[in-house]
Amino acid sequence: xxxxxxxxxxxxxxxxxxxxxxxxxxxxxxxxxxxxxxxxxxxxxxxxxxxxxxxxxxxxxxxxxxxxxxxxxxxxxxxxxxxxxxxxxxxxxxxxxxxxxxxxxxxxxxxxxxxxxxxxxxxxxxxxxxxxxxxxxxxxxxxxxxxxxxxxxxxxxxxxxxxxxxxxxxxxxxxxxxxxxxxxxxxxxxxxxxxxxxxxxxxxxxxx
Length: 208
Known about the structure:
Keywords: Signal. It comes from Solirubrobacter ginsenosidimutans. This is Lipoprotein. It contains three helices and six strands, in the order ααββαββββ. It has 208 residues and is of the alpha+beta class. It has two domains: 71 residues; 114 residues, no CATH class.
């Protein structure tokens, strides 16, 4: 049987076309299979990035908050306030009591909570607050900068023995201030004793 040249050429072209189509189909299928996976990976990466940034921001805010807390003193004062008070107390022992600016013979506007009492031989003359759950009370007594720690101990001992408080800690800056931190059944109390004026010391009770 003889095949015409034209027919043979058409047959070869058909076989070639089928081969090319088969190869192209594999590429298309491979691309179709790989594209969703690549898209999914890109989507996951885009989704994870904001979360990672959010976590980093949260960590930074937490560290900043902890840093601010670390700057606050045990009596709730910021570091700047504590430094200002220390500077004020440096010259207080030589200052005339008329220059204090408070009536040291007066009485506080607010009363101390019923589970707390001032030092028996000190005069309570001023109160501040409440500021939320915090109140401050000020008392004056005779004394010198050399007696700061001993007067602080007197305040602490009365709160422990007469009012049922437990001492948490004490600290002091020689000639500048002496502090005590105590906890009771209903309140915590931070006591600060500083020079006020000639021959006088000031006790500050920060009650929370």
